[in-house]
Amino acid sequence: MRPHLSEYWKIPPDANAAFVACLEDVLEVYHLPFDPLWPLVCMDESSKQLVGEVHAPIAAAPGHGQIVDHEYVRNGVAEIFLEVEPLGGRRHVEITERRTAKDWAVFVKGMLDERYPQATKVRLVMDNLNTHGIASLYEAFAPQEARRLAERLEIHYTPKHGSWLNVAEIELSAMQSQCLDRRIPDIASLRREAAAWEADRNNRNSRIDWRFTTADARIKLKRLYPNF
User: Rounded to an integer, what distance in angstroms lies between the CA atom of residue 10 and that of residue 53?
Assistant: First the structure.
């Protein structure tokens, strides 16, 4: 996978050492060989406005597709946590009512204990949102449990204005277009839709081949590197 850099509007400033330090760290992790004991997992979060119908849609018929009334009712917002293992072709989605530090911590605990219980450490790529850190584990769990979980994480943060480096964000974009591009009335329906999408993607064993390298970055993103 090669990101189409020209399509993204979050452009970092020139000669940004902090950006390129995180950039190269993430790129090097992406090119490590597959190791089931040290799996590479990317995670990201998003939200979905829950929207109900005021009038029932008219079913599709010869000559027209489904007709949906322009009126709708807002039913709140649901939060989406998504993880993807690029080299393993595995995805997992959870829908929650909130997106707090404790919600992130519970999601990570499930990742470590349920989805990767045999891993020595999970190499976790994510953005540096203020809830995405070891402190959130201590906010959610007793110190012994928080330490146990923390010791099984190797965290790699994408740089600020570098969200395109997160495979999970790209996967969320696919989910939005394939699964969430219509009105969904409630959190239960959203969970069913997300579970069906996850199962379909995983059954396809859709592995992700990330091709953009550090060498590419030093050429194509040269302006971001400090000059000497």
Answer: 35
CA distance linking residue 33 with residue 40, whole number of Å: 10
Report which residue type is found at 28: E
pLDDT in tens, 143-190: 999 999 999 999 999 998 888 899 999 999 999 888 888 888 899 999
**Taking the domains of the chain in order of start, what are their residue ranges?**
22-53+70-221
pLDDT more than 70, % of the chain: 85
- CA distance linking residue 208 with residue 228, whole number of Å: 36
pLDDT at 191 over 60: yes
Q: Alpha helix (H) ranges present in the chain? A: 17-30, 101-110, 134-140, 143-150, 167-178, 187-203, 214-220
Pairing of the two strands 40-53 and 72-85: antiparallel
In CATH terms, 22-53+70-221 corresponds, of 3.30.420.10, 3.40.630.30, 3.30.565.10, 3.40.50.300, to 3.30.420.10
